[in-house]
Amino acid sequence: MNIIEPNLNGTHLRIGIVQARFSNEIGSAMLKVCIGKLKELGVDADNITVATVPGALEVPIVLQNLASSDKFDALIAIGAIIRGETYHFELVANESGAGVSRVAMSYNIPIANAILTTENDEQAHARIEEKAADAAVVAVECGNLVNLLLSEQFEEEDDDE
Q: Any idea which positions bind (2S)-2-hydroxy-3-oxobutyl phosphate (predicted)?
């Protein structure tokens, strides 16, 4: 049996982050925590690119452009969608989440989705630290894993020739 162990060494990884500015206080705090954790995992500050967008619905299109550049090993989506009094919350939460997933699958790139969906500001504030740090860990671990799997796939193709 082959077991691939998690690799949390971000030394050679290039990470792109897209932060939604709507609920900017929360998103900015998440961005700070996430970048701190990425650096702790060895990702060089020069290998971190941050783009901001107005809100969660705009996150997928910028992720798609980052993914299509082939300059990143993993991406991170950051923001907060807080329930209001209308159906708009469900629309934004569902569409942004689906868009993030489509980009990941279409471009074969790991995307840590750290867009919070909460009932109120208090819940969002309570989740800033854990969700942002988790996003950094997911990006590094999955970036390394996909890179490994792709390198093994290309090695197998070379062996077949």
A: 85-86, 127
